[in-house]
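Lab channel / #folding
Pinned by the channel admin:
"Please post every new chain as: sequence first, then the structure tokens as a reply. Keep commentary short and put observations after the output so the thread stays searchable."

First post following the new format, from NK:
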Amino acid sequence: MVKRNKRCDILITGFGPFPRVPVNPTAVLAERVGGSRRLARLGIRAEHHVFRTRYAILDKALPTRLAAARPRAVLMLGVATRARHVRVETRAVNKANRTAPDASGKTHRGAALAKGAPLVRRSPAPLARLKVAMAGTGMPVRRSIDAGRYLCNASYFTALGQLEDKRPSIPVVFIHVPMPSAWASSPTPRPTRKDSPQTGAPAKVRRPTLAAMARALETAAIVLVRESARRQMS
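Reply from TO:
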């Protein structure tokens, strides 16, 4: 008889390096949130996994990890290098960029991620509540309908497809984070008068620190786990 591992409450995933991003902040964030003392104090059993940024993970590594962890909720992380806001991705599309190489130098074979699959898969997570909760930590957050055409979108589409038939539905969400302002643990600095706009134009949003993003993502994890518990009881 095969002994199955105990289900985790939430699985947090990140990515390793890829072309032009030699250090991926989501690898650090996934580890921090997965090992969060705050989550542990709340009795939340979290696991984390950092995937290689390769299309090959879609066939085996990602499905295998999801099956092994049997998570009640999933928080997936990716980096958007030009962004200054955290982006909560509402959906993934069945499209791939055939010109952008992954960390192994390979590109996706076709324009579609999966033949015969739907064009769009939407997150079953409580996105509005998630956005409000993260913004409550001081994090600039936006909802997004475009997760790109790279591994972020591809992994999101794959995970949603693998878990879409689970009942009750498992809250799965992909969150894009910006590159942190610095690799430091200090809180995000508040703008001073000198930083304020002189002409009435909107102030440029500063990139958040790694520590600030970790706090916001811990909050997101709590929202997802509580939503999962609510669905189990309904």
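NK: The chain is about 30% helix and 15% strand.
TO: also worth noting, Helices lie at 25-34, 37-41, 61-69, 127-135, 151-163, 210-233.
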